[in-house]
């Protein structure tokens, strides 16, 4: 794991508690592929993992227009303190997504 990825993971653990809980919850459901998606997103790969919480950002934005629209609509309509976007088919890291918002 690169130093940059390690620093980003430390930032998530320290400054993004809801995002970290979401990562742990995803891993409880799908196992190690959740952590692989996080690392891929932290290395700059789009459509794997993207999160923001209280001014901190982790991962890489999704390049799929529909994903961006969905996240934006939820933010405007409901507001949020954090948002985590995952590849929908996490086992294969399919570029569709699902999002967790608080």
Characteristic terms for this protein:
102 residues, 4-stranded antiparallel beta sheet, 4 helices, 4 strands, globular
Give the number of DSSP strands: 4
* Distance between the ends: 29 Å
Counting DSSP H or I runs of 4 or more residues, the number of helices is 4
User: What's the number of structural domains?
Assistant: 1
General form: globular
Structural class category: alpha+beta
**Largest β sheet strand count, sense and barrel closure:** 4 strands, antiparallel
- Beta-strand level of the residues, as a percent range? 15-25%
Order of helices and strands: HHHEEHEE
Q: Residue-averaged pLDDT, rounded?
A: 86
Relative helix content: 40-55%
**Over all CA atoms, what is the radius of gyration?**
12 Å
List low-confidence stretches.
91-97
Strand order of the largest sheet: 2-1-3-4
What do these coordinates show?
There is one protein chain. Strands 2-1-3-4 form a four-stranded antiparallel β-sheet, with helices on both faces. β1 (49-53) and β2 form a beta hairpin. The protein is globular, with a radius of gyration of 12 Å. With 102 residues, the protein is an alpha+beta fold. It has one domain (3-101). 50% of the residues lie in helices and 20% in strands. It has four helices and four strands; from the N terminus they run αααββαββ.
């Amino acid at each position: 794991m690169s130093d940059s990825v390690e620093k980003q993971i430390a930032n998530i653990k320290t400054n993004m508690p809801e995002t970290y809980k979401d990562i742990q919850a995803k891993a409880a459901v799908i196992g190690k592929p959740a952590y692989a998606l996080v690392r891929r997103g932290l290395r700059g790969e789009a459509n794997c993992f993207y999160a923001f919480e209280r001014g901190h950002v982790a991962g890489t934005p999704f390049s799929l227009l529909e994903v961006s629209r969905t996240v934006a609509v939820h933010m405007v309509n409901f507001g949020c303190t954090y948002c985590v976007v995952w590849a929908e088919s996490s086992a294969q890291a399919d570029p569709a997504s699902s999002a967790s918002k608080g």
